[in-house]
Amino acid sequence: MTALDWPEGKRGAVSLTYDDALPVHYEHVAPLLEEHGLRATFYTNVLSLGANPEAWRQVAARGHELGNHSIFHPCRKSPRHGWLDEAYDLKTYTPRRWTDEMRAADIVLNLVDGRTKRSFGNTCCNTEIGEGETTHSLEPLIDELFVAGRGPLCDRTVTADGLNLAALGHFSGDARSFNALREEIEVGAALGGWTIYMIHGVGEGTHGLFIDPEEHRKLVEYLGGQTDIWTAPLADVATHLRGQISRA
Fold first, then answer.
1. Is residue 6 part of a domain?
2. Strands 229-231, 128-129: parallel, antiparallel or unpaired by DSSP?
3. DSSP of 216-245
């Protein structure tokens, strides 16, 4: 297994990503990260961001990424997605509709943070739209619009072997212990890889999916103390890797 090419002195990378533009993210998570010299990606669906755009503008100004997480949070509807409106079932989406909605979300995000390049957080970790004969992979669409896509929930460290910036793959951090997360990060760093986490809420009542605040604090403190592991927003790491690929 081949190691990725990291900045000098770094043996691996980590990206913490937080979904759905929750108040706890700008009230507590971003300040905690900054206290330990870290920056993250906040995947912001536009309808949630609109509740407090100024707070998100300040988060972005302090160096965090506002990743694209769509306007309406469409997903491939299943029995466990009872909350999803039928209008936003990805099984009914065409490439044109998906692309148009993501471009519109990008326009709104640009008005908030002034940035033109960002990553995409696959809603519900889905990687396809359509159904049956109309099924279409999101990878070429993501590659056209974004510097990277977080891709599927696959519990796998990103390595140079088969690197796919349009469908990176990631772990969940929700309901996990710090010890389990640390072990994954250390294994990933030993491979010279990139460990990506998806987290929703931090603390009970912040989201149906969440990590315990104390476990989260331990994770942030640990990463803040690792001088040989690069913790950075997903778009920053992906941009670095794209630069390495272009020079290869």
1. no
2. unpaired
3. HHHHHHHHHT-TTEEE--HHHHHHHHHHHH
| Separation CA 203–CA 211 (nearest Å) | 6
Residue 233 lies in a domain: yes
18 in any annotated domain = yes
**How many domains, in total, are found in the chain?**
1
Do residues 121 and 150 lie in contact, with contact meaning Cβ atoms separated by under 8 Å? yes
Q: What CA–CA distance (Å, rounded) separates 234 from 119? A: 7
Question: What's the half-sphere exposure (Cβ side, CA atoms, 13 Å) at 66?
Answer: 32
User: In angstroms, rounded to a whole number, what is the distance separating the alpha carbons of residues 105 and 108?
Assistant: 5
- DSSP E strand stretches across 73-206: 128-129, 136-137, 171-172, 194-199, 201-202
Neighbours of 12 (CB within 10 A): 26
pLDDT tens per residue, range 202-218:
999 999 999 999 999 99
The answer to whether residues 123 and 70 touch, using CB atoms and an 8 Å cutoff, is yes
State which residues form the domain around 220: 12-247
CATH value at residue 104: 3.20.20.370
Record the pTM: 0.97
Q: In the chain, what is the straight-line distance between the N-terminal and C-terminal CA atoms, in Å?
A: 18
5-24 confidence digits (pLDDT tens)? 999 999 999 999 999 999 99
Residue 3 inside a domain? The answer is no
